[in-house]
Structure formats: C-alpha cells, structure tokens
From TrEMBL:
<dbReference type="InterPro" id="IPR029753">
    <property type="entry name" value="D-isomer_DH_CS"/>
</dbReference>
<feature type="domain" description="D-isomer specific 2-hydroxyacid dehydrogenase catalytic">
    <location>
        <begin position="15"/>
        <end position="315"/>
    </location>
</feature>
<keyword id="KW-0520">NAD</keyword>
<feature type="domain" description="D-isomer specific 2-hydroxyacid dehydrogenase NAD-binding">
    <location>
        <begin position="112"/>
        <end position="286"/>
    </location>
</feature>
<dbReference type="Pfam" id="PF02826">
    <property type="entry name" value="2-Hacid_dh_C"/>
</dbReference>
<dbReference type="GO" id="GO:0051287">
    <property type="term" value="F:NAD binding"/>
</dbReference>
<protein>
    <submittedName>
        <fullName>Hydroxypyruvate reductase</fullName>
        <ecNumber>1.1.1.81</ecNumber>
    </submittedName>
</protein>
<dbReference type="InterPro" id="IPR036291">
    <property type="entry name" value="NAD(P)-bd_dom_sf"/>
</dbReference>
<dbReference type="GO" id="GO:0016618">
    <property type="term" value="F:hydroxypyruvate reductase [NAD(P)H] activity"/>
</dbReference>
<dbReference type="InterPro" id="IPR006139">
    <property type="entry name" value="D-isomer_2_OHA_DH_cat_dom"/>
</dbReference>
<dbReference type="InterPro" id="IPR050418">
    <property type="entry name" value="D-iso_2-hydroxyacid_DH_PdxB"/>
</dbReference>
<comment type="similarity">
    <text>Belongs to the D-isomer specific 2-hydroxyacid dehydrogenase family.</text>
</comment>
<dbReference type="Pfam" id="PF00389">
    <property type="entry name" value="2-Hacid_dh"/>
</dbReference>
<keyword id="KW-0560">Oxidoreductase</keyword>
<keyword id="KW-0670">Pyruvate</keyword>
<dbReference type="InterPro" id="IPR006140">
    <property type="entry name" value="D-isomer_DH_NAD-bd"/>
</dbReference>
Amino acid sequence: MKITVLEPLGVEKEKLEEIARPLIEKGHTLEIFEEKSTDIEELKRRVKDTNILVIANSPLKGEVIKAASDLEMISVAFTGVDHVDLDIAKENDILVSNAAGYSTPAVVELTFGLMIGILRNVVPLHKVTREGGTMEGFRQRELHGRTLGILGTGDIGGDVAKVAIAFGMKVIAFNRSENEELKNLGVEYMSMEDVFKTSDIVTIHLPLNDKTRGIVDQRYLNMLKKDAILINAARGPIIDNNALAKALNEEKISGSGIDVFDMEPPIPSDYPLLNAKNTVLTPHIAYASEEAMVRRAGIVFKNIEKFLEGNPQNVII
Ligand SMILES: NC(=O)C1=CN([C@@H]2O[C@H](COP(=O)(O)OP(=O)(O)OC[C@H]3O[C@@H](n4cnc5c(N)ncnc54)[C@H](OP(=O)(O)O)[C@@H]3O)[C@@H](O)[C@H]2O)C=CC1
Ligand SMILES: O=C(O)C(=O)CO
C-alpha cells in the first residue's frame, strides 16, 4: 500500500517515519509532503496513485478525493472532520477515520486558560503592569463557586467537566446523550435553553455538523446573564459571531474567549470579534501542544495499521 501524508503534521519527518516504522517494516511505502499546498491540481497530482491518505486541517475537496482512484482510506489527523467532503468519500467507499482524543488535554487546558484570562483580566492587566499601572478598575473573579455550562460532553467537554469540579464549580450540561460517569460526579444535564439561562460561563465542545451550525444564535445569547462569559474552542460557525460581537460591545454579556473562527486562517481584519469588548482571542491553537502533535501522529498511523488488519478504529464513515 502507498501511504501519502499530504501536509505537515507538526512533527519532524524523521520522527514521523519512526512512528510509521511498523507499517514500513511490513512493506508499505510512505510519501511525506512537507509543504502544505492549496493548489487543487497539485493536490490531485500528490494523491493520484495513493491508497491511504493522511491529512491534517486543509480542506479536502471531493475533486481531490475523486482524483485518487485507488484510495481506500483517509486517516484525518484532526478531531473535527468538517473540512473533508464526506459525501464523496462515502460514494467512493473510502473509510474515513479521525484522531479522536489526541488533543483533549491541550484543549481542556486552553479552555480554562481563556476562562481565567477573562475572569482575572490577564491581557489588559499585562499591558497595565508594563506601563507601571495598578489593578484599579479591573475586576477579579473566581471560577470557584461559579456555574459552568458545557455544550457537548464528549472527550473534551467531559474532561472540562472533571477539571471544573476540581476547581469547585457547579457543572451543568447539554448533550444529545447523557454520560452516566459525569452524572455520578454531579454534572446535571438540562436543555440548552436552561444551560444558557443558568450558567455563569458557557463553554462549547460540540462538533460542527448540520445540527450544530449556527446553533448558538441571538436568541440563546439573549438568555445569558449580563455577567456571563462564553468560550468557544470548538468550531467558529457554531456561534452567530456577529450577534456575539454585538452582545459583547453592548455589554449584554461580560466577556468571551475565542479560539476558532468562521474563516481561518487568516482572520479577516473586519471580522466582528477582532475588536469586541472583553474578548481574548487565540488563532486556533487549542489543539497544538507539542505533546498533542506526537500523540496525533501515533493515532493516525495506528488507525492505518488497524484498517489494514481489517479491524478499523476511530471510524467516522
Ligand atoms: N480548537 C481546537 O484546537 C480543537 C477543537 N476541537 C473541536 O471540538 C469538538 C469536540 O471534540 P471531542 O470532545 O473530542 O469530540 P467528541 O465526539 O468526543 O464529543 C462531541 C460531543 O458532542 C455531542 N454532540 C454531537 N452532535 C450533537 C448535537 N447535534 N446535539 C447535542 N450534542 C451533540 C456528542 O454526543 P454523543 O456522545 O451523544 O455522540 C459528544 O458528546 C471537535 O468536533 C472539534 O470540532 C477538537 C480538538 C481541537
Ligand atoms: O482536531 C481538531 O478538530 C482541531 O480543531 C484541531 O485544531
């Protein structure tokens, strides 16, 4: 089998080859492209004679999938697969897997980093401190005792719940199914409406799909308390970001921490959240710890090994 890594995976080529060694030792060939390309013709050339494709976050269009006439599997080095044309993959009987769980600690930690950044005014106070100022006029609030509302209690949302409990927070959640382990720890499931009405902080950990696109709209934002903050380290299009910017600028809510955007990268200079009040922004870095990059390469090649053994794991379709 020919395995093609279509774009960099955040670990050096030698390290990647070491991780893929069990496959190479079985006689499979590995081609690694170290430069990302967005040129469709170039991508078609790269995938032409491959059997297994490894991609990270670059959109994988149907026409590129169709150009790989011998393709049997796409091993996505990402949790979300909303950038892959799954309909065309399905039509062509191609198995798609993801790297579920590779970045869970990294995303959980940044989620709390964003929360604390806003509650303690870390970003503005950094500037004030350098200019010789004081904390005068900057609020200092704790996580402890606050109610955290989690949308999506899967791998990431579930661990966010556990850390929140350790911080002394009350945790409520909305998810289409209920997790018994979390319930036993004290997490209370309720409707999305009740989560928005009750929470001091809402954090989003849903995947982007047809049901979640735009789900956090003006109606839900209006339900938030004036003192509430909203965190999104899932996917930008889950929120109506124009409505969110308006709510922040009109001080209808008290802050926001955003790692993901409707279009990225780069984020256009007129993007509504770029200059919104009391907002901390990061350029989609939640996943990108050095440790997560190594974990994800391990999962991606393990997925391929399992597929070749006839026992696929982390299957999306
Ligand atoms: N910013 C970043 O760097 C990163 C962002 N992400 C984003 O975070 C998302 C979540 O990741 P992860 O926790 O690992 O994924 P999981 O698949 O483990 O969790 C997703 C959760 O969302 C629930 N869910 C899915 N659709 C709906 C719906 N329509 N209504 C209610 N609940 C729903 C699922 O419920 P059920 O259990 O019933 O299926 C599941 O509990 C990813 O899809 C990705 O987009 C992930 C990694 C890094
Ligand atoms: O793995 C994912 O889905 C991510 O968002 C990483 O950026």
